[in-house]
Design goal:
This protein has a seven-stranded mixed sheet with strand order 3-2-1-4-5-7-6, with helices on both faces. Strand 4, helix 6 and strand 5 form a beta-alpha-beta unit. Among the domains are: 64 residues, no CATH class; 59 residues. By secondary structure, the chain is of the alpha/beta class. 45% of the residues are buried. The chain binds S-adenosylmethionine (SAM).
Length: 194
C-alpha cells in the first residue's frame, strides 16, 4: 500500500492519486490518544478507504467515522443517493482489510456532530455539501469538536464557496503548506483564539 500503485482504482470518486496518498498518510499520522478521525461526505467510500488504509498501518488505530446521509435530497440536489450507500458498503466489504476500520454514520454532518464531545476529533476531512452555507454549517458544528492543534482537510479547495466559508473562520484556522501536487486538498490546523 505504500508503493506507487494507485490506491483503490476500482472505487468511484474524485480523488487524484496524490490526494489518495495524502489521506492515507493522514490516517497513519493520527495518534488515537489525540482523538478520532471524522470524514464528512462518504459518497462511495474512496476517501474513507484511503484514510482506513493509513489506519491499518497505524499502531495506535484511531477510531474513524464517515458521515453521509445518502439522501439524494435537498442540498445534495438528487445527485447522490441510496445507491451510493449500497456501493459504499460493497466497497468496504471488498476491501474489508481496511473497511473494518470505518464506522459509517448515515446522517447529516450537523446531526452527527451532536454525538461527539468538544475536542474529541484529531482530524476532520470536509468533503460534503460544498456550498458556502454547507461548509459554513459544517465548520460551525464541528470546529469546537476538533482538538486545538488538530487537522482539518478541505477537499475541492478550488471552489470559491469552500474558500469563502473557510475564510470566515480565519481567526481559528491556520493554513498549512499544501502539497503542490494536490492543490485541491487544503490542510488547516485549529488554533486557539488569539
Ligand atoms: C464529493 S462527495 C464525497 C466524496 C468522497 N469524500 C470521496 O472522496 O470519495 C460528497 C458527499 O457528501 C454528501 N453530503 C452532502 N451533504 C452532506 C451533509 N450535510 N452531511 C454529510 N454528507 C453530506 C453527499 O451525499 C455526497 O455523497
Amino acid at each position: 500500500m505504500l508503493s506507487n500503485e494507485l490506491l483503490f482504482p476500482c472505487v468511484e470518486g474524485w480523488l487524484i492519486p496524490e490526494e489518495r496518498r495524502i489521506l492515507m498518510m493522514a490516517g497513519v499520522a493520527v495518534d488515537s490518544q489525540d482523538g478520532v478521525i471524522v470524514e464528512i461526505g462518504s459518497y462511495r467510500g474512496l476517501s474513507s478507504l484511503c484514510i482506513a488504509a493509513g489506519i491499518h498501518q497505524n499502531p495506535t488505530k484511531p477510531l474513524f467515522y464517515s458521515i453521509d446521509p445518502h439522501d439524494g435530497l435537498g442540498v445534495t440536489n438528487q445527485k447522490y443517493g441510496l445507491n451510493d450507500l449500497t456501493q459504499c458498503y460493497r466497497n468496504f466489504g471488498h476491501y474489508s482489510t481496511f473497511g473494518q476500520y470505518i464506522n459509517k454514520l448515515t446522517t447529516y454532518s450537523m446531526t452527527a456532530a451532536r454525538m461527539f464531545d468538544d475536542e474529541e476529533v484529531a482530524l476532520l476531512f470536509i468533503d460534503g455539501d460544498h456550498s458556502e452555507l454547507g461548509v459554513t454549517e459544517d465548520l460551525n458544528a464541528w470546529l469546537q469538536k476538533v482538538v486545538i492543534g488538530g487537522g482539518i482537510f478541505f477537499h475541492d479547495w478550488e471552489l470559491e464557496s469552500v474558500r469563502a466559508a473557510a475564510g470566515k473562520f480565519s481567526k481559528v484556522l491556520r493554513a498549512e503548506e499544501s502539497d503542490p501536487s494536490a492543490p485541491n486538498l487544503q490542510l488547516f490546523t485549529r488554533i486557539a483564539w488569539s
